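#structure-requests
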Amino acid sequence: MIRRVIFALALLSPFVLFSLAARTSFAQGRINHAITSENQSAPPNGRDFWFCIPQNYFRSGPNGDGSRYFLIYITSTRNTTAYVQVGTGPVMTRKVVANKTTVVKSTPTIPEFPTSTELGSSGVAETRSIHIWSNDADLSVYFLSRALHTSDGMYCIPTTGWGTEYVVASYNGYPVNSAIGDLPSEFCVVANQDNTYVTITPTYDIRGTGPTNIAIHPKGQPFSQLLNKGECVQYQTTTEVVDGTDLTGTFVSATKPVGVIGASVCPNIPVGDPACDHILDMLPPIRTWAKNYFTAPFQGRKYGGDLFLVVGTKAGQEIRRNGSVAASLGQPYDFAFIPDITTPSYWTSDTTFMLVQYQQSKTHSDPTTAKTSNLGDPAMVVVNPAEQFGKKIVFQIPDSIILSGQSNFSNVLNILVPISHENTTLIDGRPLNNPGPGLTIGGKILTLAIPQKQVIPGTGWEVVYISTISTSNAGEGTHVLTSDTTIGLYIYGETDYDSYAWAGALGIRSPTTKDTLPPIAIPDGRCFCSTVKLYDNRPIDTKLSSMGYDSVLNMTFYPDTSFVYGGGADSSYYEICVIDSSKPAYI
């Protein structure tokens, strides 16, 4: 686990008192037979974010590029300033009011950053990253890529949650079709440090900048890519006339932590269904995978159920669902798709794995001729493992934009909670088990979906659905889910032939780590100035990932200028000084 550590230093004039206390990491939360976890996971928010925009479906004509909307949602539990830089463009400053959503937009009427930030090449490193940061508060960041009938979004993982090993989750590209066009499977890698060498072993042929049916990186053959700070690279499958062009299972390793986004331009889920939709999600590194997951169905659908992807870590691994074997995997990092799951589920294995849930195409398994019975269309969400659950989740419902000929999203929350803690779990201060006739959040009324609750078999857990199925786009904005125990959440929205899905939070720690020791902090200085040296280089230590202060009065703070956030350093330092020694000071 790479840790974010904040040190507190108090200085009182005229005498100086050094009081250094490290915020320690927590030991792995044990999931016992009753499936309960009382340990609070490390905070999933952060102060530094980098990501890039995978290619969405491009339509020519009146519903073409003008219908593309890229929306970044930023919130914090404290008043702060967020800084946003797109590529090498100017740094934008945005005020963030505590528990209120700040939106940065790229739309035809509000072009705060160019739509050309979206990646369109394959195998070319480009400086098109989006960098978001705060100097004094943790942020929660989400991203929505929206076009007519092809939208999806993602929870953005802070750099403290990055890693050096990933397995790609994507889905089949659409086979070449003169009416539909070129819709490949894809993924992106983004770096925040110079001289980051990335090695990739693809599960399907990867195209280059030339003919789309020519592979520059053949299936199964590792290749390397150099990325510098702020660079992104997108990889797409070659075009084929058959299905099966999927980059799922591609192994990515890097010499320094990177961010990875799995996507597909506009897949049919399952293959062969006539309704496609864009999918994307920021992927967790292997070090954050765990052994226990809870899931609940996407609501609002009458047919078909949901598709799940499991990715293992060892040869011969079995993944169980509600006690029965759901998948038997072959080699390390092998994967399997499990279709048409219609009930709440408990997924487990004897070692760590990744779980991804997909909404299937609107028309999948619809027996009616008109095929108008289902909301939604393909979307994907990485499922947060139970070991990474927390007691407080700050989440966002997108305030999206109605596109021509399309109604807005009906939003749904899937809340995963122990049955015995339902009455102590609150959403915006209102109890889940007594929300009244309607739950007012975001200035609008939400109603509990039917069914309101479902038990997850054999676990002592349940899923509580809060929905705006009857009130389109209600409840948008920032919300807070709290409990006296650890809980899970994911959010999604549906409209005609369109949907999005994202996690309430994704854990950033390594659940299997044995490192429970705080970093060492050694102050060195006299009177009103000090250099605080930091070390996390013992045999089981997992290195320093970020540093910062929560509040300051009458003091300066100068961190090590060579320190790279998310990089994982053995040691570092910061310098602090009292500004006016005749007055109280603290940091």
